[in-house]
Recover the amino acids of this structure.
């Protein structure tokens, strides 16, 4: 299957085809959402195998989520058959873990090193901050960990940073960074950012290791290139390798006579193909930089760029809406996306009383789509800005019987019992893993208190050994109670027993054994707390995850055996192991994993945050919580650059929709148990009003008032009738004071204020000339958001010395 190159090229447009067959120089494909970038990438891989004599082992494809990687592997397997499964199609992190496992000696690591996720890093940083006696108010562990992460994303290691740190804050950070790294080394652990940074350093320090991967990977393909950070960019550069004199000649040789390129012969750089869309860059907060896409041609000389302009995903209405929103961002290259799928349906809008009403409406609308319009629940996605927003939808969906799944959220792997169980496994695989060992040392209780832990810690520093090693010698610790020594003895005995078992048995058996022998499971089973029954189920689920892992590895090994043209591959796991399982879990748990469909034909509604939605598409999309302070997120509202990132997120959300797009917001929404009055999201008026069919507008709430801003002038409907909506602070205050803004509004006196609508030009006595971006409220409560060039602000019009021009 798929061995016919012409077949592969059919169903692609001319530019897509050019991108698939392009050879000999680095290739950048830039294009808007839904233009087939990912499709080009998969077809290119299949084409390399079918038409250019490339073997699966020579290809490394990088995507952003495990889900995307899984899909790409399946799609390629669909095109070329099971041998496609032997390719490295993975996230940056997984690719690095595989390299580090294979090269652990060069990297100075044990092969069983632990991988710390964000929560583990924070715990470790907490230990560090306490040890350094840093004031937790000025230097919260969370913030130290985030800053260290940023430095690593920039490939700034602890000694470099220490050398350049100035001022008390930076010096404190430098100290924390150094001590944190030391602790990681002692624990034989790497945090997520280390995975990339360590691999980069490995390739830079050991030319023979770099050479090995360089020889191996002749094709490197990267999806979502706009979201790469500096460290990832350097990693790609290292893998591609430097350009020798005549790269294209050598590539010809590689293609026609690979045997001439035995070890020792010089090799040209690997062929690099990246795809991306600067307008969809939404991970700046993790150090992603669109510089990488903007300067691709400078980074990789003789690179070629291909633009794709036809969108195959969405209706013209949805595309127009997306284009109009993203067009407001500065410093972007204009794009000319078009679709020939016709205008389609209008966007449907709804203004709800509160978040329950919003969820209620969404649920009813989904019902209607399924009953009357032939959609399946699986066709529908509900997006929101933050995970916490999912709960209300869940409540109502359960009540309405709408089948759904939540992607992300309080994820399976973040639950306490799952983390505890994994900590046990990690401590078995790697006894030096201090964060894991300390997590479960006294869980269930074994009489080992904080004091005993401190004594062991002191012994560890004195003897310069790991915490785990010090546990084995707990009897020598000064000041430790005999009860604690006994508890520690029990613990180390159990762990040693299970560790022995782990050498031969598959991870699911190891997990069951440790849950039983440690008494962890028994404690939950005997508890009468109803939550603990759920915890037991989650642990059962974890055992199933381990079993699935084992089966998957066995299947892959069998597929590998069947694949005759590929020799044995040391970097591909052949037997299930505890380390391999933990590695999979660590990587999956961090990324935005999407559970597989439950196999039912009609499937379930998918709920997820906008960040998770990237790269996906759904026939029907609900964009919910379209409120200033929710989306755009409150945190980003004061900063132009962050606001632009939120706008890109809106662009991502809108462009996920194929046929139907819904937008909704709630006039009040509770936060911290108090109702908040949120103004309409500033992104809503950026959508062309003629494309929206409002099923219910804010008029439902403001009909009791007279006059007001922009009344009847445009589709720009007035915001909630709140006296207190001029900014998040006062909203929170209104909530705290328990005021009903409607009453406050009714009591206040109407006065003449300028009637403004978005786009109007104004002059403000102090701020000068400006342009109205959005308006909110009416009468004395009318406010306008005005862009004065250097700053954008909300102004209460009643008080403002302002004239309409
Ligand atoms: P995003 O920027 O959101 O990641 P993308 O550019 O990667 O989008 P794809 O997901 O590859 O776009 O493609 C969007 C949709 O259009 C998919 O359903 C894909 O199968 C379809 N598509 C792409 N190219 C073609 C084509 N030439 N003919 C038919 N359908 C196509
Ligand atoms: Mg894509």
């Amino acid at each position: 299957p798929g061995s016919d190159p012409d077949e592969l090229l059919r169903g692609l447009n001319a530019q897509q085809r050019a991108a698939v067959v392009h050879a000999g120089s680095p290739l950048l494909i830039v294009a808007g959402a839904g233009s087939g970038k990912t499709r080009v990438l998969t077809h290119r891989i299949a084409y390399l195998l079918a038409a250019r004599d490339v073997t699966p082992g020579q290809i490394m494809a990088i995507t952003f989520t495990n889900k995307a990687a899984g899909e790409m592997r399946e799609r390629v397997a669909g095109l070329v058959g099971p041998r496609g499964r032997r390719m490295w199609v993975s996230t940056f992190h997984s690719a690095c873990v595989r390299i580090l496992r294979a090269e652990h000696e060069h990297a100075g690591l044990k092969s069983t090193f632990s991988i710390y996720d964000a929560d583990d890093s924070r715990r470790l940083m907490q230990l560090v901050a306490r040890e350094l006696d840093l004031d937790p108010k000025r230097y919260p562990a969370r913030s130290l960990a985030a800053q260290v992460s940023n430095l690593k994303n920039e490939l700034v290691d602890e000694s470099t940073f220490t050398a350049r740190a100035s001022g008390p804050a930076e010096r404190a950070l430098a100290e924390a960074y150094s001590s944190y790294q030391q602790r990681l080394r002692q624990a034989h652990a790497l945090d997520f950012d280390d995975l990339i940074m360590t691999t980069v350093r490995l390739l830079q320090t050991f030319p023979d290791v770099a050479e090995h991967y360089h020889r191996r990977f002749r094709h490197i393909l990267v999806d979502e290139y706009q979201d790469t950070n500096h460290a990832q960019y350097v990693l790609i550069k290292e893998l591609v390798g430097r350009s020798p004199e005549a790269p294209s000649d050598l590539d010809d040789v590689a293609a026609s006579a690979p045997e001439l390129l035995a070890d020792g012969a010089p090799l040209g750089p690997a062929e690099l193909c990246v795809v991306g869309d600067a307008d969809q860059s939404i991970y700046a907060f993790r150090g992603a930089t669109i510089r990488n896409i903007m300067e691709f041609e400078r980074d990789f000389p003789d690179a070629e760029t291909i633009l794709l302009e036809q969108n195959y995903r969405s209706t013209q209405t949805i595309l127009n809406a997306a284009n109009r929103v993203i067009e407001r961002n500065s410093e972007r290259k204009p794009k000319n996306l078009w679709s020939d799928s016709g205008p389609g349906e209008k966007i449907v809008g709804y203004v709800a009383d509160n978040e329950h009403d919003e969820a209620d409406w969404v649920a009813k609308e989904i019902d209607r789509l399924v009953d009357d319009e032939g959609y399946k629940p699986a066709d529908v996605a509900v997006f929101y800005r933050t995970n916490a927003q999912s709960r209300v939808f869940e409540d109502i969906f359960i009540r309405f019987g709408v089948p759904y799944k939540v992607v992300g959220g309080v994820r399976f792997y973040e639950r306490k019992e799952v983390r505890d169980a994994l900590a046990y496994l990690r401590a078995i695989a790697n006894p030096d893993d201090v964060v894991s060992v300390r997590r479960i040392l006294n869980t269930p209780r074994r009489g080992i208190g904080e004091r005993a832990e401190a004594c062991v810690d002191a012994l560890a520093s004195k003897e310069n050994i790991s915490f785990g090693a010090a546990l084995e010698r707990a009897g020598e610790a000064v000041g430790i109670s005999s009860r604690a020594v006994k508890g520690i003895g029990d613990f180390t005995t159990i762990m040693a027993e299970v560790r022995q078992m782990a050498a031969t048995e598959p991870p699911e058996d190891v997990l069951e054994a440790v849950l039983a022998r440690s008494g962890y499971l028994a404690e939950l089973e005997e508890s009468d707390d109803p939550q603990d029954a759920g915890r037991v189920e989650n642990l059962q689920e974890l055992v199933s995850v381990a079993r699935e892992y084992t089966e998957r590895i066995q299947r892959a090994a069998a597929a590998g055996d069947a694949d005759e043209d590929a020799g044995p591959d040391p970097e591909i796991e052949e037997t299930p192991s505890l380390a391999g399982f933990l590695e999979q879990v660590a990587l999956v748990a961090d990324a935005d994993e999407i559970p597989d469909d439950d196999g039912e034909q009609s499937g379930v509604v998918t709920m997820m945050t906008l960040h998770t939605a990237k790269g996906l598409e759904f026939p029907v999309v609900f964009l919910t919580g379209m409120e200033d302070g929710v989306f755009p997120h409150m945190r980003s509202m004061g900063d132009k650059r962050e606001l632009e990132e939120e706008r890109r997120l809106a662009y991502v959300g809108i462009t996920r929709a194929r046929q139907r797009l819904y937008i909704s917001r709630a006039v009040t929404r509770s936060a911290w148990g108090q109702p908040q009055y949120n103004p309409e999201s500033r992104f809503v008026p950026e959508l062309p009003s003629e494309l929206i069919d409002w099923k219910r507008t804010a008029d439902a709430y403001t009909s009791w008032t007279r006059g007001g801003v922009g009344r009847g002038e445009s589709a720009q409907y007035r915001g909630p009738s709140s006296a207190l909506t001029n900014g998040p602070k006062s909203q929170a205050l209104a909530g705290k004071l328990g005021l009903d803004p409607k009453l406050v509004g009714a009591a206040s006196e109407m006065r003449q204020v300028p009637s403004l609508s978005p786009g109007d030009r104004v002059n403000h006595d102090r701020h000068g000339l400006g342009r109205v971006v959005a308006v909110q409220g009416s009468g004395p409560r009318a406010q306008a958001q005005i862009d004065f060039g250097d700053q954008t602000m909300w102004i209460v019009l009643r008080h403002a010395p302002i004239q309409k021009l």
Summary: The domain at 114-187 is CATH 1.10.10.160 (Arc Repressor Mutant, subunit A). Residues 11-13, 16, 31, 33-39, 277, 280, 312-313, 615, 617, 655 surround adenosine-5'-triphosphate (ligand 1) (CB under 6 Å). Residues 530-562 form the longest helix (33 residues).
